[in-house]
Amino acid sequence: MSLSVSLTAIPGIPDIRDGDDLAAIIGDRLDAADLGLRHGDILCVAQKVFSKAEGCIIPLDSVTPSDEALRYAEELNKDARKVEVVLRESTRVVRSFRRPDQNEGTMICEHRLGFISANAAVDESNFGEESAVMVLPPDPDASCDALRAALHARFGAEIGVVMTDTFGRPWRLGQVNVAIGLSKVPATIREQGNTDAWGRPLQVTEPALADEIAAASGLVVRKDGKTPAVLLRGLDWTPAESRGADILRKKQEDMFR
Amino acid sequence: MSLSVSLTAIPGIPDIRDGDDLAAIIGDRLDAADLGLRHGDILCVAQKVFSKAEGCIIPLDSVTPSDEALRYAEELNKDARKVEVVLRESTRVVRSFRRPDQNEGTMICEHRLGFISANAAVDESNFGEESAVMVLPPDPDASCDALRAALHARFGAEIGVVMTDTFGRPWRLGQVNVAIGLSKVPATIREQGNTDAWGRPLQVTEPALADEIAAASGLVVRKDGKTPAVLLRGLDWTPAESRGADILRKKQEDMFR
């Protein structure tokens, strides 16, 4: 039972560039802030940081839109080249719409990695290039594994890593961070079969631990603040071999596809 | 900019009963744990605690199911009296289903308070009575206001209060805590018009602060642990007159009703 945890934005992380050694940069900032890494720490790192380090930036000049992209672009008042990138990142467009108050419409897509989000998580802001878009890393779990292994080698601590992205939700306004890649952090905790504090069997309860962690990291990260990495310390958790896709409902269990 | 926040489960909160003075109980536990309350603290308290203190428990013996309840009960293999309570708490059933692996089906409802959740947040577990169900407090914002005012009177600190409940989500497995009642805590933070760290205007970004706080509280609350109240300390935030309903998308903005 965790009684107290802390979330700390790791200070001083510079703008990341293609080819940067994330583990070295984050490790140096952890040392500089006298935080280090301890057994059981969990690092939450924004997708943008991984995408920049892995060069997942697509110049729009290099993109030729398909007929399908041209159709969506006209319907939604979007740049057809951006739509083309969204379609390439997606296995399916779940819904598309443009409300009267929207300049550009929205495409709700099933991403190649399985999750459903707006515009297939293709990002146009916050990476300093006007005529390019950013896509997710090819394998977020592998990116998390590599960061975890390198930091383990440096600090000797058994830690977990969560890659976060910022998603909107049906029914509820605003965005929260969710987990899209995991290393060692359990996607969910199965509490079925436990009893509650009054001895009665719990109904199906499966806290989405990785998403709780991702959402919590949002409390100390603000987009305009260059604080893309957060250290969660003090959580009582058991490492698992979860992958980001473990957080996704199977199609047949999901009534909202 | 918050660089570090802490989340602490307030220890020793007893089982709450109808008529209990929540502010006195929580205040005593805060003092006993040498936590107290400071300016800017936010208390996250589980819905169950408020519902118990406010007597929101309905003995099933007192419920006569309607024809509609009987129909759902048969289709979903549910107790018709429980279904009746769900229907009374709801303005609309959005979807109902029973998957082959489910003993009892699920009703996704629009609650009278406006949010969409499973079984209209009617709870059968974790309150120690076999033949009764628990419903949400009549006015969660008012419940939060009353708790905040009483704790302000005792500690003199300007604080915020969030009432949390545990919801499933479309597309993603497991549950996270969300905010269903607010006192002084902003529902969301509007970042439109800001620029990102590289000077480019941010696209529409509106972090759902109250839901981030609620989700974070789940990290130190476990259902079987009797830790229904969490103290968030260190967050940099500005009080607002938000209400729980401010977190809900308007119908015309929501493509998933």
Architecture overview:
The structure is a homodimer of 257-residue chains. By secondary structure, chain A is α+β, with helices and mostly antiparallel strands. The first copy, chain A, has two domains: 167 residues, 60s Ribosomal Protein L30, Chain: A, CATH 3.30.1330; 76 residues, CofE-like fold, CATH 3.90.1660. In chain A, 25% of the residues lie in helices and 22% in strands. A five-stranded mixed β-sheet of chain A has the order 1-10-2-8-9. In chain A, helix 1 crosses helix 5 and helix 3 crosses helix 4. The longest helix of chain A has 16 residues. At the A-B interface, strand 1, strand 9 and helix 6 of A face strand 1, strand 9 and helix 6 of B. Chains A, B: This is Coenzyme F420-0:L-glutamate ligase.
Order of helices and strands of chain A: EHEHEHHEEEEHEEHE
Biggest beta-sheet profile of chain A: 5 strands, mixed
Gap from first CA to last CA of chain A: 36 Å
Average pLDDT score of chain A = 89
Structural class of chain A: alpha+beta
The multimeric state of the shown protein is homodimer
- How many H/I helices of chain A? 6
Helix proportion of chain A: 10-25%
Q: Write down the overall geometry of chain A.
A: globular
Strands across the major sheet of chain A, in which order?
1-10-2-8-9
Largest interface: A-B, 78 and 78 residues
Give the second-level CATH assignment, the architecture of the largest domain in chain A.
2-Layer Sandwich
